[in-house]
Design a protein that fits this description.
Helix content: 25-40%
Radius of gyration: 18 Å
Distance between the termini: 58 Å
Largest sheet: 8 strands, mixed
Mean pLDDT: 93
Order of helices and strands: HEEHEHHEHEHEHHEHHEH
Oligomer: single chain
Low-confidence stretches: none
């Protein structure tokens, strides 16, 4: 029995999606749709923007105002939309490569400005669409087409990166913890200011095939998420050895500070003598 309540949020003529079997991007996309439905947003009041990559295919399946832009530039386009339409809910989707490599400059400055955009990073630790190259989040020692003997680059902690850059809402969830991920998306969309949710996803095709064992197949990847995550609220209560090597999930930052489009409007009003 089909229990999906939110078919109207999808472009059904574009389905089924093209993501590989076992890819968790569809789970993350559906969590976003559930969050938008739970909030009760009108479709015409939402704009979803993406760049290039596997995750950036999502706007093609979503029946909102959508924009599929160039590689790494989703937040630049999203900023333009938010400045032109401050009342619109703008959501930017992208992958770990799209947002933290070629788009890293836009990410840190959107966070610094605290512009009211909800950024969602589908983090599968790899460039999945373009051949399986290692990304800024590929763990040290892991294999990719461009690191056949193992990655030696230290990987970004995306949450710490954007928190340090000034984002006023920062969180991390996983595709396995679906209900919790929906709630994080709701909080990010409702938050006034730059919000980022790192959604840990899976890539069994480009990443899993290169890294056997617990990362070698979709089921193993999801089980790894289940068994190797720690809620942020529990970190302070646990001994260091129980946290070391684990993925911390939950809300890391939630504060209110001046939002960019509102501050910009004050400048316009001042110049006009309002």
């Amino acid at each position: 029995m089909d229990t999906c309540k939110n078919k109207s949020y999808y472009r059904e003529d574009k389905l089924p999606h093209i993501w590989c079997p076992g890819c968790a991007h569809g789970i993350v996309m559906h969590a976003l749709v559930n969050a938008i439905e739970n909030i009760g947003l009108n479709k015409d009041d939402v704009c979803v923007v993406s760049g290039i990559g596997c995750s950036s295919r999502a706007p093609g399946y979503l029946d909102f105002n959508t924009l599929h832009t160039t590689h790494g530039r989703a937040l630049a386009f999203a900023t333009g939309i938010k400045m032109a339409k401050p009342g619109m809910k703008v959501i930017a989707l992208g992958g770990d490569g799209d947002f933290t490599a070629i788009g890293g400059n836009h990410l840190i400055h959107a966070a610094r400005r605290n512009i009211d955009i909800a950024a969602i990073i589908f983090n599968n630790n790899i460039y999945g669409m373009t051949g399986g190259q290692f990304s800024p989040t590929t763990p040290v020692g892991d294999y990719a087409t461009t690191t056949p003997t193992g990655n030696i680059d230290p990987n970004f902690d995306i949450a710490k990166l954007v928190e340090g850059a000034g984002a006023s809402y920062v969180a991390r969830g996983t595709a396995y913890h679906f209900d919790a991920l929906v709630k994080l998306f709701e909080n990010a969309i409702n938050h006034k200011g730059f919000s980022l949710v790192e959604a840990v996803s899976t890539c069994p095709t480009s990443y899993g095939r290169k890294n056997k064992g617990f990362k070698g197949n979709p089921a193993a990847m999801l089980k790894y998420m289940r068994d190797n995550t720690v809620p942020v609220a529990a970190v302070a209560k646990l001994p260091k050895e129980k946290v070391e090597g684990k993925l911390v999930i939950g809300e890391f930052k939630n504060e209110q500070r001046p939002e960019y489009t509102e501050e910009y409007q004050k400048i316009i009003d001042k110049v006009r003598g309002v």
